Amino acid sequence: MSNEPLWTVFINACLINNFVLAYFLGLCPFLGVSGKLATAGRMGLAVMFVMLVSSLCALGLNAALIAIGAEYLRLIAFIAVIASTVQLVEMFIKKVSPALFAALGIFLPLITTNCAILGLALFQTNKGYGLAQCTVYALGAGAGFTLALVLMAGLRERLELSDVSDVVKGAALTLFLAGLLSVSFMGFAGLGG
Amino acid sequence: MTELPVTDSSRPAPVAPRPSIWAMYRAMVGIGLGCGLAIVTVFELTKPIIARNRAEALRAAIFRVLEGGQTSQAFVQQPDGSFAVADQAAAGDVVHAAYDGDGRLLGIAIEAAGMGYQDVIRVLYGYSPERDAIVGFSVLESKETPGLGDKIETDPGFLANFEALDTTLNPDGDTLRNAIVFRKQGEKQNPWEVDGITGATISSHAIADLLNASAAHWVPRIEAHLSDFEQRN
Amino acid sequence: MPTARDRSPTDEFVKGLWKENPVFVQVLGMCPALAVSNTALNALSMGLATLFVLLMSNIVVSSLRRFIPRQVRIASYILIIATFVTIVDYLIQAISLDLHKALGAFISLIVVNCLILGRAEAFASKNTIGRSILDALGMGMGFVFALFCLGAVREVFGAGSFFGLRLFPDGFQAWVIMILPSGGFFTLAAWLLLFSWLKNRKAARAAAAAQPAGGLR
């Protein structure tokens, strides 16, 4: 069990070890959806929401697997549960709040196989977080993902207007930007001390 | 990750004209059984090897922090405060006693963790009841900045702190007489102070803090039940 | 995606190495791999683990391709891939705990590597076992090669060593940033740049065959 205080868990997941900029998780939506600011924000919120739900599911599932002594099925169980959770969440939102569904809807299926979601579930298991820590960890990771996505979208919207050589355009340019963002996020290291 | 519609296709659709539900059912159950069997086989085959690797790594770490150790034994603290012999992989707070060739208690290796510069740092340190001091230290896991923060694992001046870091208890025996405190490089004056590393201040400070917290917790408990560890052979 | 039946077995193998290199050309499957490309050894191990999973899942998917109905194919593929990833995880733990510690949860994350699911869906489900093996070997080696290029560059500049061997005299000040996450982004971006430059140059040469080459665009 871990006895990390909640605020360091949050700062750690959100800023110091940002999932995108320090662990390279969720790069695909990061490179794909970060073109426009408005979309990026919504996508981030959807990810945060799914992270929270699947993190709690993974916590319960892990406890159940340990109880029956079947830890070796963890990965398969996580993948299956995350995929079906997203599906359930999607149906639930559709029923309860059509407005929210309209806002998040298209992004939800996109998230199903996002590495960041599975990464979150695996990391929290490795760190031995409890219920409160998992909740905060998921919120922090989601907030960090949103932050990275929104910052990136802002940068890319500006770059649309500038004249960039054909060779650099595309993935290479985005990765350079991500590298610069990652450098600036290094400044947050040490906050959790 | 490219999107692939995972779950919709995993359930039999209400109207599935081409392959029958039976075919889908057969495929999923068949693959599930095959996969489960494969995993269990590999798990059972590798289990003894992994357990041996783990035990060896732990032994090596214990004898690194308690030099001269020949054998070790895990102990877990009971609700009444006494220590009982435990399995190495026992749940709860486990400490490891190390003995020399004659079965004499050399010291107790304790695991501690705390927040570093980048992420949680996990260390193992050796406590010697005879010398009332921490006599060895080893980093088990850290993600500190390479070239800067990771000096906590290699810097000879810093590691010299843990050749004899004073952890004498106060007269009541319920906490440390002097808390382990951090000092900037070159400003260490007392045996309970940790001399930091320039350029890795936060990481070395974190080590001092986590050792202090862990020692303040464990040393009084160990001293109160020291005889539990000495009965050997 | 390439399903051309007329391709020779050699071409099937070679395409993944260079022309359709999964990382440098298709920009696929970096998410779980970049984080552990900070040394040549880590990168190579991660690459080989991915190669193993890719190869095994391609074989199984291809041999079961008539047995799996279309509707449940993705779920089946994920199940198969997750199985082999779990197996690799235990094998690495048995081989070296230190390596397992260095790679950490990123081994399990191979399961969401788009490359593997992509090959299962786009190639192995439609081709014979033999071709699927060649495809997996080619793509997998291409992935290993790419990851190794990243890891080697990052280790040489970031730590001044190669597979742990010191390369430079003592005066060398390592570029720590190359080992940090940002270095991963920069190194990958630089490799992508090189590849797109090569591609553009080739296209320009082909287009302006009459004129002497030299244009970059």
Structure description:
The complex is a heterotrimer of chains A (193), B (233) and C (217). Chain A has 193 residues and is mainly α. Chain A has one domain (6-188). Chain A has helices spanning 6-16, 19-23, 27-33, 37-67, 74-96, 98-104, 107-111, 115-127, 131-160, 171-185. In chain A, helix 5 crosses helix 8 (115-127). The longest helix of chain A is centred in the first third of the chain and has 31 residues, at 37-67. Chain B has 233 residues and is of the alpha+beta class. Chain B contains 5 helices and 9 strands; from the N terminus they run αββββββααβββαα. Chain B starts with 20 loop residues before the first helix and ends with a helix. Chain C has one domain. Chain C has 9 helices and 2 strands. In chain C, helix 3 runs antiparallel to helix 7. Chain A binds chain C through residues 21-28, 31, 72-76, 79-80, 83, 113-115, 118-119, 122-123, 126, 166-168, 170-173, 175-176, 178-180, 182-183, 186, and chain C through 27, 30-35, 75, 78-79, 82-83, 85-86, 89-90, 104-105, 108-109, 111-112, 114, 117, 177, 180-186, 188-190, 192-193, 196-197, 200, 216-217.
Considering the chains and any ligands shown, give keywords for the structure.
heterotrimer, A: 193 residues, 0% strand, globular, C: 217 residues, mainly alpha, two-stranded antiparallel ribbon
Strand percentage of chain C: under 5%
User: What level of helicity do the residues of chain A show?
Assistant: over 70%
How many separate domains of chain A?
A: 1
Tell me the number of helical segments of chain C per DSSP (H or I, 4 or more residues long): 9
Based on CA inertia axes, which overall geometry of chain A fits?
Answer: globular
What's the total number of strands of chain A?
A: 0
Major β-sheet strand ordering of chain C: 1-2
Main sheet properties of chain C: 2 strands, antiparallel
Fraction of helical residues of chain C: 55-70%
What is the overall pLDDT average of chain C?
Answer: 84
Q: Return Rg of chain A in Å.
A: 17 Å
Order of helices and strands of chain C: HHHHHHHEEHH
For the largest beta-sheet of chain A, the strand count, sense and barrel status come to: none
Tell me the distance between the termini of chain A.
19 Å
- Helical segment tally of chain A? 10
Classification by helices and strands of chain A: mainly alpha
| Overall domain count of chain C | 1
Give me the secondary-structure category of chain C. Answer: mainly alpha
Oligomer: heterotrimer
